[in-house]
Amino acid sequence: MSHDTIKRRDFLKLAGLGGAVFASGLSGWAQAVKSGAADEFYFVQLSDTHWGFNGPKVNPEAASTLKKAVAAVNGLEQKPDFVVFTGDLTHTTDDPKLRRARMAEFRDIVSELKIKDVRFMPGEHDASLDRGEAYQEFFGKLHYSFDHKGVHFIALDNVSDPGASLGEAQLKWLAQHLKQLGKDAPIVVLAHRPLFDLYPQWDWATRDGASAVELLMPHKNVTVFYGHIHQEHHHKTGHIAHHAAKSLIFPLPAPGSAPKRAPIPWDEAEPNKGIGFRSIEADAKGAQYKLAELPVPKG
Amino acid sequence: MRPLLSRRCAPAAICAALALAGLHASSAADEPVIRVTARKFEYDTPEIILKKGVPVTIELTSLDRVHGFNLPDFKTRADAIPGMVTRVRIVPDKAGTFAFFCDVFCGDGHEEMAGKIVVKD
Q1: Do the domain assignments include residue A2?
Q2: Is the pLDDT of residue B3 over 60?
Q3: Per residue, what are the HEC states of chain A?
Q4: Which among B73, B79, B107 is the nearest to A94, CB-wise?
Q5: How far apart are CA A231 and CA A248, in angstroms?
Q6: pLDDT reading at B2 higher than 50
Q7: Based on the structure, what is the number of domains in chain A?
Q8: In a domain, A1, yes or no
Q9: Residue at B4 is within a domain
Q10: Number of compact structural domains in chain B
């Protein structure tokens, strides 16, 4: 087993932090681990940190939650290969100077991560009011791709258009990009908003997300990780699995379970309830993923 | 802009409800028109009461910036644009309460910018 390969025992220790483990339901993963298959790795997804948010009733510890999450990631027994933030790094503001100040503060805080391979993505709070201008100054491209140990990652931007569209240009880029990949290639798509109509009544959708899913559909091994809805959620469009991550600021109700998509109030009896981050263990050969939901430590 | 005068509003109760919702008759199509003005982070008509089977036209505008008007249960959306009127026709073919909301991100408060259409039998 290579140095980078996570042993199952170690992975369960990660889960033992108190998080729940969600297996992506594909057979063969356990066998792959047993056999010590190559190209296994894991990464961490953090989402919806909303740095700058102020709402004591939903998170009286907003000024420290992100820092605690960074410390928790640094404390993982096995270092992840990389960390990805799937949008809403900062809480929105109309003031361009304040927006940049929040982005600078966010960048400073996450620079404390021991893992230096950190990938960023915008959320609508970061990028919708200025079409990503400030975001790009601090974090780079709005959409991009990269390869890691046999998995092709595609980060899509469905937020810099305030109308929540990917847009024709990006869809064309995606189509051309996918043409270069084999139909069996393991593909992970990262996005902020859901690419499918999760609950349109709460605007939990992407206006032209169906076009992206249609482009991805001929590819056999596609998994999507996203944020935006501030809760763990799992869904399939055909063979494509979509996994939403918890927020690191406050949880939102399950789709359609409340009259409004209002934040769930802070629970003094259970601080940090409903918020957290996720580790994703990948077996690139089988394009299978095992997810563990991890909490933000109390105190 | 179309005239504000209501020309045809059959049952009295519905007529009153429509008036409360800012609804007026269209002089051209003789079809009720509802004017909805958007601004951060609200609609001036957050509740619209309609009668099932009676089509209406919603006239959208905005006071400050582009907002959205998305009514997913009727697969209808449009932009509310300052200085312009955008017309959206709705055929309320089912009774119930249906949410509409702004789907053009407009700032801190965007998530609360919503209203509802109540369609009565």
Answers
A1: no
A2: no
A3: CCCCCCCHHHHHHHHCCCCCEEECCCCCHHHHHHCCCCCEEEEEEECCCCECCCCCCCCCCHHHHHHHHHHHHHCCCCCCCEEEEECCCECCCCCHHHHHHHHHHHHHHHCCCCCCCEEEECCHHHHCCCCCHHHHHHHCCCCEEEEECCEEEEECCCCCCCCCCCCHHHHHHHHHHHHCCCCCCCEEEECCCCCCCCEHHHCECCCCHHHHHHHHCCCCCEEEEECCCCCCEEEEECCEEEEECCCCCCCCCCCCCCCCCCCCCCCCCCCCCCCEEEEEEEECCCCEEEEEEEECCCC
A4: B107
A5: 10
A6: no
A7: 1
A8: no
A9: no
A10: 1
Closest CA in chain B for residue A206: B103
Whether B7 is in a domain gets the answer no
Higher pLDDT pick, B1 / B117: B117
Residues of A in contact with B108 (CB under 8 A): 91-94
Q: Which residue of B has its CA nearest to A90?
A: B108
Residues of chain A predicted below pLDDT 50? 1-19, 24-38
Query: Is residue A164 within 8 angstroms of chain B, CB to CB?
Result: yes
pLDDT at res. A58: 97
A285 within a domain of the structure (yes/no)? yes
Q: How far is A128 from chain B (nearest CA, A)?
A: 6
CATH number at residue B83: 2.60.40.420
- Enumerate the residues of chain B whose CB falls inside 8 A of the CB of residue A164: 103, 105
Give the model's pLDDT for residue A22: 55
Query: pLDDT per residue over B10-59, tens digit each?
Result: 333 343 344 444 455 444 457 899 999 999 999 999 999 999 999 999 99
The pLDDT score that the predictor gives to residue A285 is 72
Which range of residues forms the domain containing residue A231? 8-295
CATH number at residue A133: 3.60.21.10
